[in-house]
Sequence to fold (744 residues):
Amino acid sequence: MTTPTGDSKPAGVSGFSRLHRFHGGLVLESYSGMSTTQPVAAAGIPDELVIPLQQHVGEIATPLVQPGDTVLKGQMIAAPQGSVSCPVHASSSGTVTAIEPRPFPHPSGMTLQSIVIATDGRDTWQPADTSLADYRQAAPAELLEHLRNAGIVGLGGAGFPTAVKLANAASHAIDLLLINGVECEPYITCDNMLMQERAGDILEGTRILQHILRPQQVVIAIEDGMPQAEAAMREAVDASQVDNIEVVRVPEIYPSGGERQLIKVLTGREVPSKGFPADVGIVCQNVGTAAAVQQAVLEGRPLVSRIVTVTGRGVRQPRNLEALVGTPFSHLVAACGGYTHDVERLLMGGPMMGFALQNDAVPVIKTTNCILAVSHDEMPPPPPALPCIRCSRCTEVCPADLLPQQLFWYASSGNLDAAQDYNLFDCIECGCCARVCPSHIPLVQYYRHAKTEIWAQEKQKKAADIARRRHEARQERLERIKRERAERLARKKQAVAGKNGQRDTDKQAAIKAALERVKQKKAQTDVAPRNVDNLTPEQQQKIEEVERRRRKPPPAGDS
Amino acid sequence: MLAALLTLGALAALIGLLLGYAAIRFRVESDPVVDRIDALLPQTQCGQCTYAGCRPYAEAIAAGEADINQCPPGGETTIKALADLLGRDPKPLNPEHGEHKEKTVVTIDENVCIGCTLCIQACPVDAIVGAAKQMHTVIASECTGCNLCIPPCPVECIHIVPVRRDIGNWIWPTPATSGQQAASG
Fold:
């Protein structure tokens, strides 16, 4: 692959004047004006930070601190475990008070092992590691390690560790780096505000990513309807005078911010099912991630805070806040003037893809882009679901080009194999199908259930395979022990028998020999004793007397 | 005509020989049906089916000696899978063998354990570690929940506990009943 020089742009990715269209999608009212009237403010330091040890897909991190330890802001307090894992850093200085399961934002309402820090209010940073600030001299591998240690994950969606994503992409020829500023879901404005206020940081981060990936072309995609953000980004790009970074405006169609949809819109390429954007030569990163990369490399600061949109008619003053990871939602809501009277539900994420929370005693994590408190009128509870009438409107709007109603039949009837055959796992859970369903069927929930059920079954199957192997190994071992014992016994018996046999013959022979000897001796010495020869008559008489006395039994009672 | 007949005959004989040879040369050692049945069983090795383990039960099913509804840990799912595989009608679980329950594991009360090793000998998957007169413990991740270790324990220190649900094995609930009605509609 050749690197572009000057203004000769490679064919296929140059000139984004002609955009493509992905299948389906919806035009939604954005409600972005609610939270963009005020600049981003710092949310402040809460008294207690609760930092979950797992804030993304992959393995949970292992704590490096103990209760009682004092920590500095930015200090790594939990180390990654395994390749798809991320370290966790203290988001302010203070004392670790506990490492215990705490509630965290998840649809299950479950708890997760977390490090609790009582903050000291001084917010003292640990010394910044700016060793790679001159990133142009650094090797991509060094930078990836640095990003991994800085705990950077994708801030746009599921929070996949950025270093892993970039390392995976490194094995492909990447011709396009896509910086995703298309914040397509209604209400959420954190990326919009970030672009307005920190366009320079995003651009610097982009250039670091560019240095790592060496793509031919870089595109910063911004949604139509964010004029200030677009202007700020364009200004930053123009000021930096780099020639291969282009700002492109994409139409406001939900979900054009989805990685696959955005790639389709800009390049017309389709990411294969079960594939990754890198398979078609593209890497996509959120603008927030780019800004975090800039902070990690140039300022030497790990990811300890992010911009969170706190909005909805359920809060008094909707706005964007720069919140430390671990800050309770309630603290952010309080910073926005508290709840209004008609607040009804609390969600993390937007109205389309977010999930409901049971309460606001959960901390901000790296993927918390929005806290949405809605009133009853704003998001009324869905009416009861009616039977599917096969109108196929869901199919028309599906941006992943799936057949939602087929998926629904299979997911609801437990026919999970068939659901997978219909590419259930290509569903991005955007919620378009459920939104247009005239029968109000909560389609996405069926898909989510089916996906988690399939994962659970796969895990069960794996566990069963392990149990089978362990059982077989045990059977084999027991057999072997039995066989070995039998063999040993047989050998011993044989050995004993052999030895005994030998001994017996030896004995017999010895006895025989002794008898022989006796016989021989007897034959040789078969003569009368000579001590009674030539006796005098007195001697003879004495002997007879003794003999007589001997023969006579002793008189009874004599003793 | 004759040439054609001869050619075809010769070909048939040749291919027949080849196939016959292949059948002997590449014979599959174990019965694949048994393997396929065994793959569907939950591998708890609990013996509730009255056989000594999952594989003997699979062999008995394959031989037609056992029915497909004798596995309580597998429950409906396993019965359905077996019915699909063997082309039979699914039937409800035979209550003689027990009822289907959520998967559990066992734990040893380490304060009470006397280190007699009887449970270690009973465990079909070597999920208990310990030695004579040493404390025993259960490797929870390897425990299949067969409960075979409970009867031999002389001090009743083994207890059944539910499997801990965490984010890794959490399942989204299905939509409320209204949604399910829609599914059947």
Remarks:
- The radius of gyration of chain B is 25 Å.
- Confidence is low (pLDDT under 50) at residues 177-185 of chain B.
